[in-house]
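User: Fold this; tokens only.

Assistant: Input:
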Amino acid sequence: MSEVGGMKISVLASGSTGNCTYIETAQHKILVDAGLSGKKLAGLMASIGKDIGEVDSLFVTHEHSDHRKSVGILARRYDLNVYANQGTWDAMAPKIGAVPTEKKNLFAPDITLSMGDIDVESFSVSHDAAEPQFYAFHSGGKSFVILTDTGYVSEHVEGTIRNADAYLMECNHDVEMLRMGSYSWPLKQRILSDTGHLSNEDGADVLMDVLGNNTKRIFLGHRSQENNMKSLAHLTVSSIMADHDFGVNHDFQILDTEPEKASELMTL
């Protein structure tokens, strides 16, 4: 394993319009999802001083466009190893173009993949995609969990992701903004369902169940452009957690993410 504190992370983009996260260890440079154009992702990487051409692995969570838009392009252009489960491969194959067979890697749910100085743990979530799964990354005694695009979080998943050093947690919508907004009723029902998305309140509830003494950073992710506001998501989560005696801004930081602006590259 790498030295303690060796894992670096940046949320390159998070939101309904596109998602991508960068993770780096001494041996690996990894992307999770590629939901924006290759050109935009290359620019976001450059904004944190990194070259997208040095990325070696891409983990895909599910086939929705805001997570897989440039998967095929990046795989072909930069010779990446791409990891996804069978359901996701089958669902996204017609949409991403050819990926060299030797670069296609099957990664089933509830498995830990060891890659030198980093272990990647997969877990299933409840979302209206073919076989959605997210990931926990472990390196040098540190861990980082990505969990967006789920309608609820099971006890099994909570057990898998408990006490990580950092989280990227879904806070997709404010329930009242969604209910009063312009979306069709079927779409509202989909978002609010058990296979939809976590609200700000839901995200706070999950965080209170899983964070522990190791947890120092919480990124609020996958914010809806239509049914949420950055300030509202931050205030809602902070207030709920503070009301339950969690040490907001003392024991841990709550950090915002942007749809097309990378967060600072930080070492866990």
